[in-house]
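Q&A log
Question type: sequence-to-structure
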Amino acid sequence: MKKLFYIFLLSSLSLFAGEINIAVAANVGYAMDELKEEFKKSYPNTRVIVTLGSSGKLTAQIKNGAPYGIFMSADMEYPEALYNEGLAVAKPIIYANGALAYLSSKKLDFSKGIKILNGKDISKIAIANPKTAPYGAAAIEAIKKSGIYEEIKGNFVYGESISQAVSYAVTAADVGLVPKSSLYGDKMIKYKEGINWTSVDEKLYSPIEQGLVILKNTQNNAEYKAFYDFILSQKAKEIFKRYGYIVK
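Response status: OK
Response body:
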């Protein structure tokens, strides 16, 4: 009987003494270190390996057999597609709502709102590739709704991921439309709200609902379930809020 108890105990401990692979939309990368640190407090023996990328490219990798156990997308469409194809355990759940912001290394007059993009001093506008990055699609939607798309469409500089779009916004372009979450990292402290960045009017784009799913190949792994539950926890919500996300 005692032998069986020790076997059970060792088996239970082993569930939380491994590593988990998480596919994460690039916009969440800025909050990921803090999320991992908070998770580690409860699960110190679980190593969390994060792969960042555009939601579209990560979805393609998952369909091609990439060994991820959880997918944190920048929208609901990609994880819903994985669920419909039988690659996710359950329908995606919204873990946070994202927001767009203008970003520039220059001092700009943000009182003009989105009309700032067709100003005479703006010749390059950085956005993420709208075909693979939901934040890029949201940026295009906002520009089209404002009625200036045709006028400025030749000025777009496309980043293949959100992180690249953020980089372009402060180097290769005059301004960029980027996730608000990207502005709260340590490397972005020098860019000041109201001077270098400000929020895009949320009425100009559809809500950016970010979806979370457990992938089918790891559905019985307790460590993945623990991380999934953590991302939906109050502690994680507090971290998301600090990085400019809207959470309920």
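Response note: Strands lie at 19-25, 47-53, 70-72, 93-98, 100-103, 125-128, 156-159, 175-179, 197-199, 208-214.
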